[in-house]
Amino acid sequence: MTGTRRQARPIRLGPRSVAALVLVSSVGVAALGWPFLAPPASQVAAHARDAPWLFTGLLLLLVAVVAATISESGLGPKAVSMLGVLAATGAALRPLGAGTAGVEPMFFLMVLSGRVLGPGFGFVLGAVTMFASALLTGGVGPWMPFQMLSMGWFTMGAGLLPGPDRLRGRAELLLLAGYGFLAAFAYGTVMNMQGWPFLIADGSPISPDPQAGPSANLARFVAYCLATSLGWDLGRAIVTVLLTFVLGPAILKALRRATRRAAFESPVTFDAPAR
Questions:
Q1: Which helix (H) or strand (E) holds 120?
Q2: Helix 51-72 with 106-137: angle, nearest 10 deg
Q3: Read out DSSP for 172-223?
Q4: What is the Cα–Cα distance from 245 to 94, expressed in whole angstroms?
Q5: SS3 content of the chain, % helix, strand, coil (to 5)
């Protein structure tokens, strides 16, 4: 008997996983955006003490997305093993650039992994990697659920890029590098949004002003990003682009080979014996 060639298939999100992802994304967007929509007379910073409860609920929803994806998509032991290996590798890469002007090599690995393994696997991988990284570096805090959510979005976005089956070579590297460059700034902006509204209003032009309207606070937030995190985000973006071009071809090839061998969600069938 001869076995048919097994085809690698990216892990897809099922209906329950999609519903959980939409719910957690909606809660995350609302939690990030409500301070900018608050009326001028509101006391935004007065709710800072409520933040841990919101963050706890967001973390539980993220765990629900991960659990639903793993159970609903029927991940086999090979797929779960790959998730663990990639998450551990990403978590180990993150401390290499800790405190060094945005040198964070884990981001390029998330882009490449999401590209090869699809958006469903990508979201789970991004969230689990950031959780493992927080445990490894001692970075557990109220910001961690937002880091998990942001990295899940970051990695899932790479899986949604066009041409996953036909685009190869330099064109694919340009696409991934461009996405990684822009997404690195988006990640930094999201992380700024989760902490900026709760800064003490000290009268500086970059701190939140409870008496100002949404447009004024948005301008202050943009100034805050430019003054505090632009250099870090630029370093992250440049490192992601460079590593994508230098190491991307070899890692993409290795990930695709591993995916073919694992043959996610692809049962092994055999041809009928010749008579």
A1: helix 106-137
A2: 120
A3: HHHHHHHHHHHHHHHHHHHHHHHHGGGS---S-TTS--TTS-HHHHHHHHHH
A4: 19
A5: 70, 0, 25
Read off the pLDDT band of 1 (50, 70, 90): very low
- Structure tokens, 183: 């997404």
Residue 243 confidence class, pLDDT cut points 50, 70, 90: very high
Q: Can you tell me the distance from the alpha carbon of 95 to that of 238, in angstroms, rounded to the nearest whole number?
A: 18
> What distances in angstroms separate CA 26 from CA 45, 54, 62, 249, 256, one per listed residue?
22, 13, 12, 35, 32
pLDDT in tens, 161-215: 988 878 888 999 999 999 999 999 999 999 888 878 777 767 778 887 777 777 8
Task: Give the model's pLDDT for residue 238.
Answer: 92
Please report the sign of the dihedral spanned by the C-alpha atoms of residue 122, residue 124, residue 126, residue 132: negative
Residues in the chain: 275
What is the Rg, in whole angstroms, of the alpha carbon atoms belonging to the chain? Answer: 21
